[in-house]
Write a structure and sequence with these properties.
Blueprint (H helix, E strand, L loop, with lengths): L8 H9 L3 H23 L2 H18 L10 H32 L9 H19 L3 H12 L4 H8 L3 H34 L1
Length: 198
């Protein structure tokens, strides 16, 4: 509830968009408790809920200039943001849990590492690392977030505040470039082997 004479939520967001960081603190003081309770109900873990609320306020600060009162109140915007971030976090946690359960269910018998396989894996890893390094930063970031953090394209689009089509085309270009770089690496490696054997 806004006290008489205090700035409205929309005014605080406008000040935040203009660079006034104290405005973020004022919004936080008004709504952090409500948003934390919502996040706890969804993620069912206080520490994770606190992370969600923190992420929501970081996002609010980054996107304050994009807020439009025509699309609803500031508190409704924040509630939607916290709800979406909480659901995303819960899905990622469940996805990781499912992967861990599947891995744990596999009968893994200790084996002696095969030196040739270790060498082959190391060469393959090095090739992928070098190929990734050739990609533009934005394409490399998209692949890393998708494959190493397990985010879906819609989740990446929401996190970065860009259209889903942009993420999909960025990922498609990145994968095509990566395939091309790996093919070039393989050709160069095969040529080197032939030269040494010949």
């Amino acid at each position: 509830m806004t006290l008489p004479g205090a700035p409205t939520d929309a005014e605080l967001l406008a000040r935040l968009a203009a660079g006034d960081l104290d405005a973020a603190s004022a919004v936080y003081d008004r709504y952090a408790g409500t948003l934390l309770a919502l996040a706890i109900r969804i993620v069912r873990d206080r520490a994770e809920a606190e992370d969600v609320v923190h992420d929501a306020f970081v996002t609010m600060s980054d996107r304050a200039a994009q807020y439009s009162a025509d699309r609803g109140s500031v508190v409704a915007w924040l509630v939607t943001l916290v709800r979406n971030l909480s659901i995303d976090r819960t899905r990622r946690r469940e996805r990781r849990g499912g992967i861990l359960r599947r891995v744990a269910a596999v009968d893994v018998r200790p084996t002696t590492p095969d030196p040739e396989q270790l060498l082959s894996d190391a060469i393959a890893f090095d090739r992928v690392r070098r190929a990734l390094a050739t990609l533009p930063d934005i394409q490399r970031h998209t692949l890393e977030v998708a494959f190493f953090e397990g985010l879906s394209y819609p989740e990446i689009a929401e996190q970065e505040g860009v259209p889903l089509g942009t993420i999909k085309s960025r990922a498609a270009r990145a994968l095509a470039s990566l395939r091309g770089a790996l093919d070039a690496e393989k050709v160069a490696f095969d040529t080197l082997l032939r030269d040494r054997e010949g």
